[in-house]
Sequence to fold (298 residues):
Amino acid sequence: MEENKNKEGDSQNQSNNLTDDDSIILNSSMNEIQETNNKQQELTDNKTETKNMEVHHHPHTERKKFKHYLFEFFMLFLAVFCGFLAEYQLEHVIEHQKEKQYIESLISDLQDDVKSLDLQIDDEQRGIGELDSLIYLLDDAGLAKQKGDDLYYFGRMGPRSKPFSNNNRTFDQLRNSGGFRLIRKTNCSNQIMGYYGQFSEIRLLEDNYNHEFDNYKKVAAKIFDPGILRRQEDTNGEIFRSNDNPQLRTYDSELLKELSFHALQMNGSRRSRLAELKQLKASALQLQATLQKDYQLQ
Fold:
């Protein structure tokens, strides 16, 4: 009996030992299966995520029709064209404003010229009258001895002349900066050029007169007494007529006639210049009226 019990006990112990080993093996197998399932799940998840990303970055879009492209091109062209028109219109407005400013400035210059021309014309007429009187007195030595006061005064004041100074500020700006292209009205542009073109003739007459005056002074130095000329000046440099009948250095008829000849030449130049100045004034007034009318300026 005891032996049977011992055998049964050994059998039971062996059975228990086998059961523990099997449990270990079973657990190990289950862990491997679980790890394998986890790896397969991770791979499946990664593939799904990758597929979703591909779908997200490469969506399927409907192809645009030709009309849509044509419409986009038309809208782009219209935007560029409208921008060009706006820029052109702005430039046009700016040029018109500059043109008006130039015309207003030019009218102001013409008004200054007219005032200066009035003074210059008066001075030329005065000088012509005094030279006429000087020529008359020099023609007769006996009369010259009686009219010493007039001879000294006319001999000094008659030849005096100053060049005409005009205001060409705006004209120079138009010419140097290419501003004449802004003057849209052809008749105005032509009149402007015609007016300022007259100054070359006046400058030529002034140069000729200065040459004649130099010749006059060479002969006058032999006839007029410089002490008496000095005595006829006041502290301000103004010349006044004496009243004591001063005498000339000489009454040689040949010298008097030579001086008279030079005075006659100068008087002819002054008469020519007077005619040019009157014509210039008429042109200035006409140009001023044309600009005010065409550009509606007061």
Remarks:
- Confidence is low (pLDDT under 50) at residues 1-19, 53-58.
- The longest helix spans residues 66-138.
